[in-house]
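User: For my dataset I need records formatted as: sequence, then structure tokens, nothing else. Please produce one.
Assistant:
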Amino acid sequence: MYDFAIIGGGIVGLSTAMALGKRYPNSRILVLEKESQWAFHQTGNNSGVIHSGIYYKPGSFKAKFCYDGCQSMVEFCREHGIDYDLCGKVIVATCNEELPRLENLYTRGLENGLKVAKISPEEVKEVEPHVSCVGGIKVFSTGIVNYKQVCLKYAELIKEQGGDLRLNTKVERIVTIGNKQVLETNKGTFETRFVVNCAGLHSDRVARLSKVDPQAKIVPFRGEYYELTPEKRYLVKGLIYPVPNPDFPFLGVHFTRMIDGSVHAGPNAVLSFKREGYKKTDFDLRDFTEVMTYPGFWKLAAKHANEGWEEIVRSFSKAAFVKSLQKLIPEVQAGDLVPTHAGVRAQALMNDGKLVDDFLIVQSQNSVHVCNAPSPAATSSIEIGKAIAGQIPEQMHLKAATNQFQTI
């Protein structure tokens, strides 16, 4: 009998297990991951950015957790000798029409307690010599790291705490018997007093295995990237972002220097026809049918039809992708870019077509379900783990399922 069973071995699942081990040092903790390695999906395919929190609504959990998480992630890396770089980033307006939005973003950064500075086009060139813009802001606390390395350290610490880590173990059924949960997997059954669902791309399905309705569906969006050839990496010193469209849920293509020195350009954002669909040709009938028959998706698609079409064009046209990048760095040419790995974002979508904008946790008796944890979840992982661990004692003492619904 385990005290806590965490389903999902990405960065949020591992950070939660680590936090529970610290809070309850005598507890028996189990982590189940269906893949053969930790951080296989969202965590292992993201851009590796330690986010500052500048984009998020002041007072939201994303803003708070990202601000605190940025600091705790840096402290964690320092403590455990993990390479990171607080290189900062520039967000630039490429035309005069974007300047009011840039000003709003600057104000939001101040409201979120960040160190940000307005910089002129000339000052932008001092930071990023090849950028063309009419204005910019510098965010000093943004950094880069390899989150796979972070996850491996999390897993190592969980083992030191006495946790039981199981790879290649897929949860197929959850049965509640009295005050215990029985997890039926491809590697046998496990009993636990409490379940924490951190299954990412499959989190809504795992919630339903527990008879919990998350009131949202995971819709997968593939983010496709190019990489600058080694001889062209000099074009980018750090992180270069455009001013995002506040009416569109994605940030737009940008340049990211990775911790290994490579430079990624992207991503675009297109619907994936498979929840784990990293290639354009990937297709799963169940995943595809669920999205196509979900009213919320069609409401979202109608609202963002123009932007969605532009993303699709960029997905199939390298020339269109390059044109978007040239708004930031005019020197970039098609021959300077080669395709690199894609990522898939697990985005929770409501039935009314609204994207869940904040972290989403659904609670019930003896279980917690993390049903929306896209970016900046990796940056915020230590804080999310501590928050979940802090909520669990109250839940464990409930006498009946509450099926409370809240965002966190």
